[in-house]
Amino acid sequence: MAIFNHLVLVSSLLPLVLNYPFFPPTCYTKVLYMARELTQWAADLKRDPETSFCMAHMPDLYLDVHNACVMHKMRTYISLVDGLRNRRCAYTKDVRKLGVTLRQLFIFMSEKCHGDLVFTINDCAALER
Q1: CA-based nearest residue to 63, from 40, 29, 30, 94
Q2: SS3 of 22-42
Q3: How many Cβ atoms are within 10 Å of 127's Cβ, its own excluded?
Q4: What is the pTM for the complete model shown?
Q5: Which of 27, 39, 48, 127 has the highest local Cβ count within 10 Å?
C-alpha cells in the first residue's frame, strides 16, 4: 500500500515538475512577450464596438523589438493615446490600460533592458504594416 501511495504521489507531481520553466524569463523574453501582447491588444481595441469609433483614426500598432525605430513608434503611439482624453474611449479601462502598458514597455526597454537589447534592423517603414 505504501508503494502505491508513493507511486500516486510521484505521478501527480511529475507533470508539475515537467511543466515548470527551468529558466526565469530574461529581459529580452519579457520585452518580446509584451510587444506581441500590445500589438494584438491594439488591434483588438480597433475592432471592439465600444472603442472602434475613436480608435479608427489611430495607426496600426506593430512593435518589432529588433527594429531601432520601435522606440520612436512607441513614443508617438503613447502621445496619440494621451491625446484621446477628449474622446469618450479614452476613459474606457482598456484604452487607459493600453497606454499604461505601452508606457511600461517603453520604460522597460529604455532603462531596465537597455544593455540587453540589440536592434538588428533600422527600417521605420517595416513598422508601418
Answers
A1: 40
A2: CCCCCHHHHHHHHHHHHHHHH
A3: 19
A4: 0.74
A5: 127
